[in-house]
Specification:
The protein is 42% helix and 5% strand. The two termini are 30 Å apart. By secondary structure, it is mostly helical. Helix 3 crosses helix 6.
């Protein structure tokens, strides 16, 4: 599901709706951290183990709330996940709906509450090598949302709170 989060956010901005999702974690681990973690974890002491590098620091609900406040100045037009999924599956093009290429994932409802890969082994190994997951703060979110909103010209509010 390459680019799922960015296409999901872009769809919300384009359609001016936000799915009312449960407290499901979003992985927004910066690629530079992932690269560094891979290199550090590949040292001899950690060879032969499976690591899942993802940072469960943010929920869809918090991400959408921040996004809609940044762009629209309010909590956005909340719709049920069933209605949101129906809008995706009934779309006809990527121009109409950025999630169009992934619409098969919405055939049985809103994806995102699926399997959470265990990463305690990863967290323990990162702790041993003194590498901490970065916090995803407002500045990172603001820049990410600003980029996504620029794709089709959505105007953001003039603040980053």
């Amino acid at each position: 599901m390459a680019q799922y989060i960015s296409k999901l956010m872009h769809t919300c901005l384009k359609l001016k709706i936000v799915p009312d999702v449960p407290e499901v974690s979003v992985d927004m681990t910066p690629v530079d951290f992932v690269a560094s973690a891979i290199v550090r974890l590949c040292e001899d002491i950690n060879v032969g183990k499976t690591y899942h590098i993802y940072n469960r620091c943010l929920s869809f609900a918090k991400l959408f709330k921040y996004m809609t406040k940044s762009v629209f100045g309010n909590d956005g037009n909340l719709v049920s996940t069933d209605i949101f999924s129906e809008m995706i599956t009934s779309s006809r093009s990527e121009e109409e709906c950025p999630l169009f290429p992934l619409k098969s994932y919405f055939q049985n409802g809103f994806p995102g509450s699926g399997v959470a890969y265990p990463n305690q082994l990863t967290r323990n190994a990162l702790s041993q090598i003194k590498l901490k997951y970065p916090k995803i703060g407002r500045r990172v979110l603001y820049n990410y949302i600003k980029y996504i909103s620029s794709i089709d010209g959505t105007q953001m509010r003039n603040n980053n709170n």
